[in-house]
UniProtKB/TrEMBL annotation:
PANTHER family: CIRCADIAN CLOCK OSCILLATOR PROTEIN KAIC 1, PTHR42926. It comes from Caballeronia ptereochthonis. Residues 44-69 have a biased composition (Polar residues). This is non-specific serine/threonine protein kinase. Residues 67-300, 301-534 form the KaiC domain. Residues 1-69 are annotated as: Disordered. Its EC number is 2.7.11.1. The gene is kaiC_2.
Length: 550
């Protein structure tokens, strides 16, 4: 057994207190029977080994509340349905460099911080000093913990000399002597290679599972990704977690998936994670868990845009807690109209959040001032919070976590998300984008915020339906803003395409923007096809002629 800062003989420490348990756990025992996937009750020797442990008064030696073992990895406990089960045996698979060692070490240091004794057993030739040198740059690394409550043991020589039976005996004697509450077995590929038959490996996993369960020692086994081939350990362990990485265009993405987890209602499917200076940070897919039930919105309570003509088109404003999408090409006025929504809020003393991808805070304030909106005081006193995300490689769920967190921290009543396309460009798997938007809108309603989104349409030519129309359940109100070419000039137009609650003005109106602000004039008379951007005047019909409607 080896401590990095206190070297001593592995054989001497590993066999201290060994009292014949190797023979009790020999793989030749019951080798003529196939192991049951369900672990039976612990043997007499196993119960004897942990008897005095059960009587311990050390809080670190007591069972975890409700048998729950937290991981300390951001987002992972949510994916696991609360954490791991005390005494469970879990297999973590992944290709080289996927993050298995970092993940297990991060959980191990967290368990030390919770008062547990942690045992880390390696089956690889790499020294523990080299292993730890790779972890020193991570924030969770704690050198004091290694010399106090984290023990490193090499089982490589026992495995080579005595096979799986000798390795199991090493585990048994080390657990009996040191009584860890959390254990990692790194390099399980060696155990696979040293097993002569699948039956022998199954027997080893079966007895290891029964042993760690009796000892209440939650255990992680780290192994390389085994592909689609079934392995006996997959059916015998309590949980199977896969770490994966793949290319998406020019980007490299990482995903975690829990294939199996006994006694836990975990989140299904793949979830994004990244490796940072803090270790692994996971981001559960926002659509993988249900939002809390919400009270029905107060349809009588409406929020305006500080823009009387536009508020009149909306029938007095938008319902509190609703989502409104402004759709249109670049330069048509979407951002300016959304800033009017924020202006109305800060003027009333409300907390507001702007979350955008294209405008830096300085440019945003300058743009607002160009039409007479002064948001600088609100930004300084905290009524307005601006989050700007330039084109960087952030995952879509990472952005969602930051957005929802910003709303909750500010206790915001109004939110502008300027550029839904920024989320779409961050999506590694575009097929889930509609579900993502629906789930995000539910989370924002749950946070009690009234949201305005902007979505860009192509300036020239026909385009497919906007994202928010394809996922129309996410938004109660849709405002269409377009350019219209007529008489050798371009005109801005605005119309209310959808409003779920209350009546609205369905007229297509002209929008003008100048240094005094935004202005809405009377609707267009005569032309058809305004929504498509290609107006025309039918020779036999004029909407200005009441008799033509008969």
């Amino acid at each position: 057994m080896e401590r990095p800062d206190e070297p001593r003989s592995t054989d001497e420490r590993a066999r201290r207190g060994y009292d014949g348990m190797a023979s009790e756990h020999s793989l030749t025992r019951n080798s003529h029977n196939s192991p049951s996937p369900e672990a039976g009750p612990p043997s007499k020797n196993e119960n004897a080994m942990i008897q005095d442990d059960n009587l311990s008064t050390d809080p670190a030696r007591q069972p975890v509340d409700n048998g729950n073992v937290t991981t300390g990895v951001a987002g992972l406990d949510d994916i696991l349905g609360g954490g791991l089960v005390e005494g469970g045996l879990y297999l973590i698979e992944g290709m080289a460099g996927a993050g298995k060692t970092i993940l297990s070490s991060q959980i191990g240091f967290h368990r030390v911080n919770q008062g547990d004794m942690v045992l880390y057993i390696t089956l690889i030739a790499e020294s523990h000093t080299k292993l730890l040198s790779h972890l020193k740059g991570l924030s969770f690394y704690n050198a004091d913990a290694i010399s106090d409550r984290m023990l490193f043991v090499s089982g490589y020589h026992e495995l080579m000399r005595d096979g799986l039976s000798g390795f199991l005996a090493l585990i048994a004697s080390t657990i009996k002597t040191n009584r860890p509450r959390f254990m990692v077995i790194d390099g399980f590929r060696s155990a696979r290679e040293f097993s002569s038959t699948e039956l022998e490996l199954s027997q080893f996993i079966h007895e290891l599972s029964a042993f760690v369960s009796a000892a209440r020692c939650t255990t992680l086994i780290l192994a390389p990704l085994s592909g689609n081939e079934p392995h006996p350990e997959h059916t015998l362990v309590d949980g199977l977690i896969e770490l994966n990485r793949y290319n998406t265009g020019m980007r490299r993405a990482r995903e975690i998936e829990v294939h199996k987890l006994r006694a836990r209602d975990h989140l299904l499917g793949k979830h994004f994670f990244k490796i940072t200076e803090e270790g692994l940070v996971t981001f559960p897919r926002i659509e993988s868990s249900a939002a809390n039930e919400q009270d029905m919105p107060d349809f009588k309570s409406r929020l305006g845009f500080a823009f009387p003509d536009f508020d009149q088109m909306l029938g007095g404003g938008v319902v509190r807690g609703s989502t409104t999408t402004l759709i249109g090409p670049s330069g048509v006025g979407k951002t300016l109209l959304s800033l009017k929504f924020l202006q109305a809020g800060v003027d009333r003393g409300e907390r507001c959040v702007y979350f955008g991808f294209y405008e830096s805070p300085e440019r945003l304030i300058a743009k607002a001032q160009s039409i007479g909106i002064d948001l600088a005081p609100a930004l300084q006193d905290g009524r307005l919070t601006v989050h700007w995300h330039p084109a960087v490689e952030l995952a879509i769920d990472e952005l969602a976590v930051e957005l929802i967190g910003a709303v909750r921290r500010a206790k915001a009543s109004r939110l502008v998300v300027d550029g839904v396309d920024g989320f779409r460009q961050s999506a590694n798997r575009t097929e889930r984008f509609g579900l993502f938007l629906n789930a995000l809108s539910h989370r924002l309603r749950e946070a009690g915020v009234t949201t305005v989104l902007t979505e860009e349409l192509p300036l020239y030519g026909d385009s497919g339906p906007p994202i928010t129309l394809r996922a129309s359940a996410m938004t109660e109100n849709i405002v269409l803003m377009r350019y219209v070419e007529a008489n050798s000039a371009l005109y801005r137009m605005v119309s209310i395409v959808k409003q779920r609650e209350g009546s609205h003005d369905s007229t297509i109106r002209r929008l003008t923007i100048d240094s005094r602000g935004l202005h809405i004039s009377e609707g267009f008379i005569g032309p058809t096809g305004l929504l498509s951007g290609h107006p025309s005047l039918p020779p036999a019909l004029s909407v200005s002629d009441p008799g033509a409607r008969a």
